[in-house]
């Protein structure tokens, strides 16, 4: 069944004149596409591909603490089913010679030849894609190269890895470890597969899956060990705690998001796309489906443009990007107070690890957490990253070209936040912390060029960590 989209096709009629009487934007043969598509932005569009190091001058890194979003994934089952049904729209467009006045000859040929990618099958809904495996493997390789002292095989060391109980985060963790330590993926948590994850959800199993002290192979010291942990949602008070927070989950969509979706910018996107394709009865849901097809196809195969991106102009892509920015701003960003409160638990975890290092406590060389876009934004919000001087609203899209809160650049696929704790030979401070967002130096308020004095940073972050309180999850929040 095609659902609403196929019903729309039945209702289609050809339009000889403009839908709203407004000039219609068309494409040129040499068009370059707008890169940023929110949470479905490829990591390579954000990472600046510079080499360098994460080690500070006159300092020795003693631990890296990382929060990592899973890599490129497939759409959910329902979106996959709807994308597969886009063949009906394609056939109509080609048969009736619509899109004729606004598509270049290359775009028309690409659309005519379009077929859904064969890997888009419902059974892979939200699973890590092959590109996602590459995302995490290449990230691991670069982190290892930028922090060679932490991965030195000749030194006794340990590493801690933790993931939420989803296929995409566990597979991301596997890909990262495989490349960072040259371990066969078959030796990394072999007991965790799709079947076991399904049983965890079905039976509401609460026990964490933990494997400790996995010896590395040839290259590693025999004293090197890794601890893996996979935590079911019902037990997760760190990487997916928002799913256990009733007041957070029950809020619904914020009124600003609803107002923007029903506002003039989205109305113009709907009208112009409708006119461009000569499809008079498409809905906003259809627009979002075209957009999802565009951005998922573009992330799954980086060197192959998606014909569904041809449906939109760059300005229309910016409108759709802003809609998702607005959603995350209120859902898990600075727009609502509860978000920073939920993000504080990861700050407390980071502070606790670094505090132990300060007194020479027994700590792993690396702490790596694999999670999701919402936890990333909750954490960044608690850290005060990407604060906007003016709140994002339904009515100020045109004033927000240079906004700090841009989800495409904050949490693309494989987004990562790294904090590196250093012991330094310095007259001003013994301990320093350097921050990185998507491998780029990140300046936190009160720090210089992304480097913080630990004593001062501990006071600032310690105050946040001390106020973590899940009581907020019992309060009723009105959007």
UniProtKB/TrEMBL annotation:
Q: Does the keyword Repeat apply?
A: no
Signal peptide extent: 1-21
This entry's Enzyme Commission designation comes to 3.1.3.62, 3.1.3.80
Which top-level enzyme class is recorded in the Swiss-Prot or TrEMBL entry?
Answer: hydrolase
Question: For this UniProt entry, what is the primary localization, expressed as one broad class?
Answer: membrane
Q: List the disulfide bonds.
A: 59-424, 294-309
Q: InterPro entries from the entry?
A: His_Pase_clade-2, His_PPase_superfam, Histidine_acid_Pase_euk
What would be an example GO MF term here?
bisphosphoglycerate 3-phosphatase activity
Compartments it resides in: Cell membrane
By its UniProt entry, which Pfam families does this protein fall under? His_Phos_2
**CDD domains given for it?**
HP_HAP_like
Instruction: Tell me what reaction this enzyme catalyses.
Output: (2R)-2,3-bisphosphoglycerate + H2O = (2R)-2-phosphoglycerate + phosphate; 1D-myo-inositol 1,2,5,6-tetrakisphosphate + H2O = 1D-myo-inositol 1,2,6-trisphosphate + phosphate; 1D-myo-inositol 1,2,4,5,6-pentakisphosphate + H2O = 1D-myo-inositol 1,2,5,6-tetrakisphosphate + phosphate; 1D-myo-inositol hexakisphosphate + H2O = 1D-myo-inositol 1,2,4,5,6-pentakisphosphate + phosphate
Which UniProt keywords are present, listed alphabetically?
Cell membrane, Disulfide bond, Glycoprotein, Hydrolase, Membrane, Signal
GO CC terms in record: plasma membrane
The Swiss-Prot or TrEMBL record describes its family as follows:
Belongs to the histidine acid phosphatase family. MINPP1 subfamily.
Q: What is this protein called?
A: Multiple inositol polyphosphate phosphatase 1
């Amino acid at each position: 069944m095609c659902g609403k989209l196929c019903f729309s096709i039945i209702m289609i009629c050809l339009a000889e004149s403009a839908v709203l009487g407004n000039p219609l934007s068309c494409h040129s043969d040499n068009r370059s596409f707008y890169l940023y598509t929110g949470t479905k932005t490829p990591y390579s569009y954000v990472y600046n591909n510079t080499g360098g190091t994460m080690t500070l001058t006159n300092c020795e890194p003693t631990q890296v603490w990382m929060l990592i979003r899973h890599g490129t994934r497939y759409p959910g089952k329902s979106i996959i089913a709807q994308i597969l049904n886009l063949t009906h729209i394609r056939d109509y467009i080609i048969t009736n010679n619509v899109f004729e006045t606004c598509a270049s000859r290359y775009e028309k040929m690409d659309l005519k030849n379009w077929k859904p990618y064969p890997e888009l099958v419902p059974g892979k809904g939200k699973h890590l894609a092959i590109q996602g495996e590459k995302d995490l493997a290449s990230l691991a390789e670069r982190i290892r190269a930028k922090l060679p002292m932490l991965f030195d095989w000749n030194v006794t060391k340990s590493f801690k890895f933790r993931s939420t109980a989803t296929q995409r985060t566990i597979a991301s963790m596997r890909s990262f470890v495989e490349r960072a330590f040259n371990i066969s993926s078959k030796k990394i948590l072999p007991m965790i597969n799709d079947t076991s994850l399904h049983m965890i959800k079905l039976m509401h199993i609460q026990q964490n899956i933990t494997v400790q002290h996995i010896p590395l192979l040839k290259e590693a010291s025999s004293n090197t060990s890794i601890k893996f942990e996979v935590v079911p949602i019902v037990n997760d008070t760190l990487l997916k705690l928002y799913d256990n927070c009733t007041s957070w989950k029950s809020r619904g969509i914020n009124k600003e998001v609803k107002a923007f979706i029903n506002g003039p910018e989205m109305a113009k996107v709907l009208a112009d796309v409708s006119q461009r394709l000569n499809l008079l009865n498409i809905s906003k849901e259809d627009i979002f489906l075209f957009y999802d097809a565009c951005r998922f196809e573009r992330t799954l195969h980086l060197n192959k443009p998606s014909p569904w991106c041809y449906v939109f102009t760059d300005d229309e892509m910016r409108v759709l990007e802003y809609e998702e920015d607005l959603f995350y701003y209120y859902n898990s960003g600075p727009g609502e107070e509860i978000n920073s409160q939920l993000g504080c638990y990861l700050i407390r975890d980071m502070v606790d690890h670094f505090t132990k290092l300060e007194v020479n406590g027994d700590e792993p060389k690396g702490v790596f957490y694999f999670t999701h876009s919402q936890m990333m934004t909750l954490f960044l919000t608690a850290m005060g990253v990407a604060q906007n001087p003016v709140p994002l609203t339904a009515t100020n899209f045109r004033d927000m070209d240079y906004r700090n809160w841009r989800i495409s650049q904050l949490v693309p696929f494989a987004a990562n936040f790294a904090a590196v704790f250093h012991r330094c030979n310095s007259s001003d401070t013994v301990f320093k912390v350097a921050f990185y967002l998507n491998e780029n130096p990140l300046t936190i308020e009160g720090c210089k060029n992304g480097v913080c004095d630990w004593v001062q940073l501990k006071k600032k972050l310690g105050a946040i960590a001390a106020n973590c309180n899940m009581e907020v999850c019992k309060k009723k929040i009105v959007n």
